[in-house]
User: Fold this.
Amino acid sequence: MERRDFIRSSSKMVAGTLLPITLVEVAFGMSAKPEEKQVEDFTFAFISDAHLQQIKGTKFVRNWDMGLKRAVAECNMMSPRPDFVIFGGDLAQLGKAAEIDHGAEILSALHSPMKMMMGEHDYYLDLGEHWQKCFGDTHYSFEHKGVHFVVLNSILVDEEWTNKWKNPMARMQTMAGLDDPNGSPFMVGEAQRQWLKNDLKDLPKETPLVVFSHSPLQKIFKGWNFWTDDADLIQDILKPFDKVNVIYGHVHQIQYNKINNISFNSVMSTAWPWPYPQSYSKVKPTYLPKMTIEMNRADPFFERDATGWQMINVHTGRTNIHYQLPNNKNRTVAYNHKHERPEDIDFQEKKIPSQEHY
Amino acid sequence: MKNILMSVAVIYGLLGTTSLTADEFSNKNLKHWKSEYQFVVKEGRKVFTNPRLGSNTVTCNECHPNAANTHPETYPKFQKQLGKVVTISEMINWCIANPLEGKKMRLSDPRMTALIAYITEERRGVNLSPGKH
Ligand SMILES: [Fe+2]
Ligand SMILES: [Fe+2]
Assistant:
């Protein structure tokens, strides 16, 4: 079955009932040669930035709800089934308990085990209290089939900013406005950096390492918090390892990059796409990683366009990311071992021009 | 009817002579007009971020930080989904009616003027390119 056909039929199924069969074979454009193979074959799914937004009582913004429900339904139909699903943060829009509970309920339909990560939209109302009650720790690590996974909470800011607000909702709304000039730059912070050093202390240097963070662990554009203030310090901690992969949410668009030994990949939002920072013409230059070939422009007349979710494998110790993008061309960004960097398979190899964002 | 037309012509005639000097303006005028404009730009930012503009609490800046991707310099242009050449007001109304699930505005609505002022100010310096997709 063609992926396109699947996507069409699945949107009907989301509204109706789900077929009890798995419909989609996950085919990665770049399968690992045996000699490159480092770890057991497995895939995991990455769903992020659902931004469930309460209107009033039990009413939520329909568009955002549909994005998350669709990702969950499609994910459940994947074959092979993903070993686990990581949710990349921003489950809520304004950090409300009702929004987090609503999200937990939608995510509970997933057939695979869940791992959760915190986003700024989940945090700045009650400083993570309700989120932690529902999902537990905001940073932790785990081993899976030979890969070491780390989840960080990268959306903290300094205490002065955090504590200066009399009204928690005002704090939340300020941080929720991506372009609000009264926000504050994200960081991981000293305590978690110490924790990370300790966590990696005894790990053999050839172990493939995948680090999940909500914000990019690189500095792209401070104006929209596509940014982590202590990114350099964290990159230093990750330096001794041969194969380090950072996967982040928050930016609602496809980005990829390589800095020294670290490859960076972003994931899509299930709710809405964001413009690339260089399309904000008042601030030149901006720092979109040079390597990134942009995704196609969003067509606002299809509300799911340029939203999506991802299937990921780590066969070679490097991440290959397969983007599921309803109404937009699906993309695969895979690590090219010859060029030693992530590449968009179709667009870089076949040299297809991508649409201009301006 | 004829009389009315006649008197209109007379008034125009009178204005015609005085308007030679009435066109002059001072720095004070310029300052005033600019501050009026800046005020409307600020109002536009308020409308752009107002959760009560539509019916579902969604705001324009949720998807368009700093009004990026609104491309005011490309209007008027052919909007394929609307099937005709439109001004930016019609696309703004489309986004109000759809992602914001709100009621379209009259084109003379001061909030529409303010939205256009804010969106355009954020694109200051970009070349006009009407018709560009
Ligand atoms: Fe987000
Ligand atoms: Fe975020």
About this structure: Chain A has one domain: 3-27+53-309+319-324.
